[in-house]
Specification:
single chain; alpha/beta; Rossmann fold; 2 domains; seven-stranded mixed beta sheet; 15 strands; 39% helix
Length: 394
């Protein structure tokens, strides 16, 4: 296996990405590897720029970076980052040094950039180009940090003979094979803080507020976010209630003296009367329809049924763009270092996992077999449409 590692981040950004990149880079450099940052996810390996096959790839690309930085300074570009210099050089891949990543841990998001590029698209399969570029660049292994789509592509690449190690990242927390994914706890904190702030204005005006969170197939984020504070109802994709069921709960609580409610709803929740998901209709390269708007629609329909004043709001990208909390920083460090340790052992086709309180690893193939979701029977109180009051779920 060549002593060159490429690192990419794909899909939506999430708290903890820069920290994982930083510590994977530091560990790899300490073990004598050359490390290359791949810009904009899998796209960077499909369109890396004009890069010649050479044994001295690191030196050649570094010279182009230095020329690019000088040219930007000459143009009086007052502020630019590593990715800006790389793109200005006409590249989507370039070396990462200890100095490059030293301050990355201070920032949210991903300094490598990201995209939803799918190298295995049904209508536009670019897997052959992907394989050829990795071989030409002499990359011995790819560390892919992402969710189901990014790691699904990594699994397919692995089956082509490309060495891939995955790091789980998604604020939805819905990847199989791991109890934790980077970004989840920080996103839960964002929801908790939002609910706390909404309580003040909802109480002041006695208006029920519906808060929409992310969560396409799994309601874990909405569930834990709502469960971290005091909300009246939590709506998740794992259970499809009717408008009447929701209305009955609101009216019953009103009779009990509750002047307002907070409802947390996952964007992927299917209300029975709506006959499907609420979305914009736009699709990405993985075939996913862009979701959003369920809180607004519920606001209108529930107001008619309950004769209550109802507001709605969506957290949107605020959940993904927050600076990582201490838990995510620690997990990012562990995941990044563990990924390089697997490479050093000659292991590939695996995803770093946090399971039963330990850092371990699982097959990328197993990760791609489904979605981790809320166990409705054990965790969800269907009559209340809320978290069940139990301590032991297992």
């Amino acid at each position: 296996m060549a002593k060159r590692i490429g690192i990419l981040t794909g899909g939506g950004d999430a708290p903890g990405l820069n920290q994982a990149i930083k510590y994977a880079t530091k560990k790899a450099l300490a073990l004598g590897y050359e490390v290359y940052g791949i810009v904009d996810g899998w796209k960077g390996l499909i369109e890396p720029g004009v890069v010649e096959k050479t044994k001295d790839l690191h030196s050649d690309l570094q010279k182009r970076l230095e020329a690019s930085a000088k040219e930007m300074i000459k143009r009086e570009v007052h502020e630019f980052f590593w990715k800006d210099v790389v793109k200005n050089a006409g590249l989507l891949i370039s070396p990462l040094s200890k100095t490059d990543v030293s301050k990355w841990g201070e920032y949210p998001g991903t300094n490598l950039g990201s995209s939803r590029t799918n190298p295995f698209g049904k209508k536009n399969d670019k897997s052959k180009i992907l394989f050829e570029n990795i071989e030409r660049l002499g990359l011995g292994c790819i560390i892919a940090i992402g969710g189901g789509d990014t790691l699904g592509a990594g699994n397919k690449a692995s089956k082509l003979g490309i060495n891939v190690i995955g790091i789980p990242k998604t604020i939805d927390g819905d990847l199989l094979g791991t109890d934790y994914t980077l970004g989840f706890e920080t996103a839960v904190d964002v929801i908790k803080e939002a609910v706390k702030n909404l309580h003040g204005t909802a109480k002041s005006h006695e208006k029920t507020t519906i808060l929409e969170t992310m969560g396409r197939h799994s309601g874990l984020l909405a569930y834990e976010g709502g469960n971290s504070t005091s909300v009246g109802i939590i709506l998740i994709p794992e259970w499809s209630p009717s408008l009447d069921e929701i209305s009955d709960i609101l009216m019953r609580r009103k009779k009990e003296g509750v002047s307002y409610d907070i409802i947390v709803v996952s964007e992927g929740t299917k209300i029975r009367e709506y006959e499907g998901l609420i979305s914009s209709g736009e699709k990405d390269e993985f075939g996913h329809i862009q979701l959003g708007g369920i809180a607004e629609r519920l606001k209108t329909d529930l107001a008619k049924r309950t004769d209550q004043k109802i507001r709605s709001t969506s957290l949107g990208y605020l959940q993904r763009g927050a600076a990582p909390n201490s838990y995510d920083v620690r997990k990012a460090r562990q995941f990044g270092v563990a990924a390089v340790e697997l490479i050093e052992k000659g292991i590939s086709g695996r995803m770093i996992s946090y399971s039963d309180g330990k850092i371990t690893h699982v097959s990328l193939d197993d990760v791609s077999k489904g979605t981790r979701r809320v166990n409705v029977n054990k965790m969800y109180d269907i009559p209340r449409l809320n978290a069940k009051l139990v301590g032991f779920w297992l």
